Amino acid sequence: MENMNMAQETASLRNAINENVWLHFYQMDRAQNAEMAPIMARGEGSKIWDTEGKEYIDALAGLFCVNVGYGRREIAEAMMAQLEQIHYVSTFSFPNVPGTVLSDRLAKLMPTGPDSRVFFVSGGSEAVESALKLAKSYHRRRGDNNRYKTISRRTAYHGTTMGALAVNGLTPIRNEFGPLVPGARHVPPPYQYRCQYCADQGACSLECADEVERLIEFEGPETVAAVIMEPVQNAGGAITASDAYYKKIRDLCDEHGILLIMDEVICGFGRLGSWFGADFYNVKPDIMTIAKGLTSAYAPLGAAVATAEVAEPFTGEGKDPFMHGITFGGHPVSCAAALANLDIMERENLVQRSADMGAYFKNKLEDSIGNHQNVGDIRGAGLFLGVELVKDQDTKEPITEENLVGWLSDELLRRGVICRADDRLEPVIQLSPPLNIPQEDIDYIVDTVSDVLDEMKKRN
Questions:
Q1: Is 145 helix (H, G, I), strand (E, B) or coil?
Q2: Cα–Cα distances in Å, from 315 out to 134, 284, 375?
Q3: pLDDT, tens only, 236-281
Q4: Count of beta carbons in the 10 Å neighbourhood of residue 18
C-alpha cells in the first residue's frame, strides 16, 4: 500500500510538472521525461535521492551553493529558533539581531576590511544589481556624474536582473531582453587554453589585462564607474587567472578612480580553497558580491559588501541614504541560517578541506582522463573544476557535435552523477561538489566521467 501511495503521489507530481511547473533556463518538454528530470526529494551529505529512491552524487552542490552539504540539522534548528523569536523585520526601518551579528562577523572575515558595510539582499543577481547601483551612486555622490560605464568579461555570468544582465557576457542570454542598461562594455576573459595572445607560450602574457587598459583609455577613464569580475570565471568552465592579472586590474582601477567589484557569488565561502577568491588572488576589492555559499542554500540570502571608503558617502553624519532596497534583504531567518553555516565551516575546517580535496580531485582527473583524446584542459581551483573537451587533444580542434552537452549531462545523470556540461565557450564538464564530499564519492565521479568520455569517443 505504501508503494502504491508513493507511486500515486509521484504521478500527481509529474502531472503538475507537465502542466504547471516552469523551471529556470530549462526546456520544459524535457521535464516530461522522468529519467531526465527526476523529482528530487531528499538529501544527505553530498548525495540526493529522487522520489523513486534513486541515489545521485551531487557534483554541482545544487548550483555551486550547497557548500556544507545536505541534511545539516544544525542549520534547520537555528532557523526554527529564529522563527520562534521573530520571523521578519523590515530592513527599510530596523536592524535585527541575527542580521547585525552576521554583518559584524562577515566584516571581520572579508578582505574588504573589518569596517566594511554589508547590504543584504535575497540572492546573487540582486547582490550584483546592488553593487552596480552602489558604484554608480558612489561616483555621483562625489561629483563624478559621468561615470556610468562598466567593464566586465565576455562569456561571464553575473545574474539575470536587468543591470546584472547588462554586465553579463553571454550574448544568447542578453539578446532576448534588449535594450539593456547602457554603458556595459566587455573584454576577453583570461582564457589561457585558447588565448589569442599566449595560448602557446606556457604562461600568461597579461595581454588580456592590457585589453582592459586599452578599453578604459578608449572609453575615457572619467566615464567608467566599475570593473566587475569573478575571481575564477564560472561560464566557460572554471577559468582561472594569474595573481599578476588581478594586480594589474587593481592598479588600473586605482590609477583611474574606478571601483573594483569582485563577484564572489560562487567563489566565496571556501569554494576555491580559500575563504574568498579575493584572498586566493591577494587582491582587495572595493565591493564584493556574495550569496550561494553564505547560507549553503539553506535559505535565500546575498549581500553587496563595501569598504568603509565606498560606504562613507551614504553612511556619514547627515548623508542621504542609499536609495535602494529589497523586501527580504537581511531576512532574520536567512541570517540565522548563515550564522549556523559559518559555524559548521569553521568547526569542520571546510575551507582547508576544499583546498585539500580539490587538489586530490584534480590530480585524480589528470591521472584518469588527462591523456584522453577528447580532454583538452583540466583547470580550476579548490572544489571548482572544469574539464574542457576537444575533438583532438594534440590539435585542440573543437568538438562541433550538436547537442553534445545535453547528451553528456544525460549520460552522467543516468549513472548517478549530477554535474553540468556546458558549451558557452567550448564544451566543458563543470564539477563543483559540496566541500564535505567524501573521497569515495570523488572517486566515483572521476570513474563515471571517464566511462562517459569513453562512450563519447565511440560516437566520434
A1: coil
A2: 12, 21, 52
A3: 999 999 999 999 999 999 999 999 999 999 999 999 999 999 999 9
A4: 12
Q: At what angle do helices 332-347 and 350-369 cross, to 10 degrees?
A: 70
Q: Output DSSP code: residue 170.
A: -
State the Cα–Cα distance between residues 248 and 419, nearest whole angstrom: 34
Contact 120, 290 (CB under 8 A): no
Exposed/middle/buried for residue 201 (C-beta within 10 Å: 0-12, 13-18, 19+): exposed
Q: Give Rg (Cα) of the chain.
A: 22
| Max CA separation in the chain (angstroms) | 72
> CA-to-CA distance for 209 and 256, rounded, in angstroms?
15
For the record, the C-alpha cell of 256 comes out as 583611474
Q: What is the DSSP letter of 45?
A: B
Rounded-to-integer distance, Cα 385 and Cα 127, Å: 24
What domains can be seen in the chain, in order of their start residue? 38-68+349-459 (3.90.1150.10), 74-347 (3.40.640.10)
Residues β-bridged to residue 44: 47
Which of helix, strand or coil describes residue 381?
strand
What DSSP element (H or E) covers 418?
strand 417-418
- The reported pLDDT for the residue numbered 6 is 66
